[in-house]
Amino acid sequence: MRVAIVSSEYPGPDLIYGDTFVHSRVRLYKEYCEVMVVGYHADLTHDRIFEFEGVNAYITSDLTTFIQRLREFDPEVLAVHFINYKQITELKSLSKPLIIFVHGYEALSWKRRLMNYRTLGDLRYFLPYFLSNRKQTRAMKALAKESNQDGNYQFVFVSQWLRKAVESDWKMKIKNYHVVPNGIDTQLFKFQRKPPELRKRILLLRSFKARNYANDLAIDAILLLSKKEFFNDLEFSIFGEGFLFSTLTGKIEQFSNVRLNNFFVENKSIPEIHAKHGIFLCPSRLDTQGVSMCEAMSSGLVPITSAIGGIPEYATDEFSSFQVTTPYEIAEKISFLYHNPDEFLKMSARASQEIADKCSLLRTVKSEIDIFNQ
Q1: 123-160 burial, b if ≥16 CB within 10 A, otherwise e?
Q2: Which of 3, 152, 230, 286 is deepest in the core (most CB within 10 A)?
Q3: Within the chain, how many helices (H) and strands (E) appear?
Q4: Which domains does the chain have, with CATH numbers?
Q5: Residue among 69, 54, 65, 75 at smallest CA distance from 2
Q6: How far apart are CA 136 and CA 73, in angstroms?
Q7: What's the predicted TM-score (pTM) here?
Q8: Pick from 192, 230, 228, 190: which is nearest to 345 by CA?
């Protein structure tokens, strides 16, 4: 079976921070089928043609070249990630079974991201996003209507929450769908029993490009903890990049036990960071699955997160995670784990096991191959 993977941000030697969660599954697809990655990215200044860890990829800014490459490969199945409304008509013209992986951004209404636009200055960013989102969701809804009549078009959602949210935003039911989470590489993010001391080492590894990541709640929680008598016994490591980084972290840069790292971390380097920490701070205002949370859980970190979006499907509150809404609650849960090392160890082991049971890469890839075979 030949499967074409359509991905505009596929990682490669020139883009190590691309969609690594797409690449991790594609590497395993090769055990079952012949694969090639073809992408369309309108903003590229030159075509990206490369081989990355055994996967051949061709990403172009020309729509005609994009379709021509797909025709030349002649796939039996098209698996599309982050489908763009500009691609839909062209992809349908290939008359191939179309599997649309829905991650969230490309399908949800603009209304769900209003928290990212708070000032008059934000209007210059909001208006282009609003117009693009309206075109995108109209095209996706039209595709879903065709899917309801034609089993050759199928949707794969990363969580039940996302499926229900999309149906609500589109005001329609989707008939041909599957729910398969983004697979977590449990060999890369391997569980190692945490020593109790690591409950004092707290990691925040998130994008600072949007307010929906709720890093402000985590920063405010650190400020609250700074008033506790045991604060100097804690260590905080913050990794991330984005326009909010300096503004938010400036509130805590004076603390000697806070280490600020204003850059992204390559996926394969994250396990080494996980190994040095015991708690993962990832409060959120919008998450369709929470991939970075799942990776941290797989490594045995206890996440302090939020009961929103798809998160509760992959992390159980008070069992493998703490799900909170305020900085005060975040600080309270860190304090609880500090004073209860035995509970920290139990939650660490449960977190890893829950991810292995629900979204290990071997499990999710098998589900996706079964969908292709259908």
Answers
A1: eeebeeeeeebeebbebbbebbeebeeeebbbbbbbbe
A2: 3
A3: 12, 14
A4: 2-183+361-373 (3.40.50.2000), 196-359 (3.40.50.2000)
A5: 75
A6: 27
A7: 0.95
A8: 192
